[in-house]
Amino acid sequence: MSTHTIRTLRPDDAAPLLAFEHANRTWFERHIDRRPDAFYSIEGIQAHVAQFLNEHAQGRMHPCVIVDEQGQLIGRANLKDIDGQAQTAEVGYRIGEQQAGKGLATAALYHLIALAQDEWRLASLCAYAIDGNAASIRVLERCGFVQGTAVPDIAIVAGKVVDGHAYALDLRAAGVDYAL
Fold first, then answer.
1. Is 28 exposed, middle or buried (0-12, 13-18, 19+ CB in 10 A)?
2. Do residues 32 and 154 make contact, with C-beta atoms less than 8 angstroms apart?
3. Using one digit for the tens of pLDDT, what is the confidence trace for 147-174?
4. Residue 110: CB atoms within 10 Å
5. How far apart are CA 43 and CA 57, in angstroms?
6. Is the pTM for the entire model greater than 0.85?
7. Structural contact between residues 65 and 73, judged by C-beta atoms closer than 8 angstroms
8. Arithmetic mean of pLDDT, 47-55
9. CB count, 10 Å around CB of 54?
């Protein structure tokens, strides 16, 4: 298994992020909603990065990237919709096709859990997965998330409306310690 670093997104990540998203576009679109074509341009990705960094500065998001030992971007992980008053956030992650199955999604999710506990002092996390995305569901369950309510019409994947489920993790549950 290769070594990797998970760190907060930076403005200079725009070009590597564009390359990552473009290289993995078909792979991602097999499991999640398709992004608009305008996203796949340097202007589109710079606007995306600026928006995420603005939301981070406002305390609503913690965007992260995963880089390999050569510094190449190989994945993303985000705490989003952070609500400090309710002490909740949603998690999301994307791992490049060439890195799938190597434990990076699990490592990314554990990193987000640690951020949620240690930096953001949250009480719970949620996630959403489409039915049939067995790999993502396994990662969520491995990290302690519990399947909750069904979410009809959660996404459009390959032109078809698909259903999914919400998942939840109570960070305050007795015995829960995800510190890395």
1. middle
2. no
3. 999 999 988 877 888 899 999 999 988 4
4. 20
5. 21
6. yes
7. yes
8. 96
9. 11
DSSP string across the chain: ---EEEEE--GGGHHHHHHHHHHTHHHHHTTSPPPPGGGSSHHHHHHHHHHHHHHHHTTS-EEEEEEETT--EEEEEEEEEEETTTTEEEEEEEE-GGGTTSSHHHHHHHHHHHIIIIIS--SEEEEEEETT-HHHHHHHHHTT-EEEEEEEEEEEETTEEEEEEEEEEETTSTT-----
pLDDT cut 90: percent of the chain above it: 67
- pLDDT averaged over every residue in the chain: 90
Beta bridge partners of 146: 168
What span, in angstroms and rounded, lies between the C-alpha atoms of 97 and 22?
A: 12
